[in-house]
């Protein structure tokens, strides 16, 4: 029977790195979330949040939805809203890449830009002010349990089956923390020995999709006890690994995925006979204007 876009959210490839992993007995696997319809891991929670809210009767087609975003969630929500008949308003810092803004607009979303100095914290505050003024409904990816649920029911089971249950380490960048929370919960139920590794930026690094939140803005879905280890990555590490993924593995992705790979390699350096899975969050085409791919002679 014919399928719609929603049928193609998830079930993304899990591929083995052939060159970057080096001479080791470990297997490093990349989960290619850029293969989702709107191009990122955020397709999963975006569809989950809208679909489940609609099923509960919290929202109905024609309603206005508001969300603060740094990019990928906004794109995924804009696609899902277009598909399901909602008006979408996205609030984001003005310094996010022009490609992401253009994709959101292509899906019909209205974009509200906040000053770059205020970062995502000000974008979140602005979205809440708009909601309080009656301008729309916030799904709130930072507090909505339907965010990690999408990964508990989708991302993690896919990885478990694709590795035949042999996964030993799971590495994920931390932004809203939905991916790592949902996957950690699933893997803990399957095998508590699987090490859950979160990735955060070093002080001063500006890596899209990876955040270290001030205490007041820490996502409510985040449960620190589910993360065994947090590794810090620098701007240089993330950008260099992003380039290496493209040039040595043929995987064209964004900078947060380079950061996740940098962390996965740190894990690999201290273990043996491991099966390490890291999340490739999105595709590189939405970062072309940042100059990361041209800065080293590309």
TrEMBL record:
Cofactor requirements of the protein: pyridoxal 5'-phosphate
Domain Tryptophan synthase beta chain-like PALP: 6-282
GO biological processes: cysteine biosynthetic process from serine
Alphabetical UniProt keywords: Amino-acid biosynthesis, Cysteine biosynthesis, Pyridoxal phosphate, Transferase
Record-listed N6-(pyridoxal phosphate)lysine modification sites: 42
Catalysed transformations (reactions): O-acetyl-L-serine + hydrogen sulfide = L-cysteine + acetate
Pfam family, one: PALP
Residues at which pyridoxal 5'-phosphate binds: 72, 175-179, 256
Annotated EC: 2.5.1.47
Pathway: Amino-acid biosynthesis; L-cysteine biosynthesis; L-cysteine from L-serine: step 2/2
One function term, GO molecular function aspect: cysteine synthase activity
InterPro entries tied to this protein: Cys_synth, Cys_Synth/Cystath_Beta-Synth, CysM, P-phosphate_BS, TrpB-like_PALP, TrpB-like_PALP_sf
EC top class named in words: transferase
CDD domains: CBS_like (cd01561)
Assigned protein family: Belongs to the cysteine synthase/cystathionine beta-synthase family.
The protein's name in its UniProt record: Cysteine synthase
Biological source species: Nitrosomonas halophila
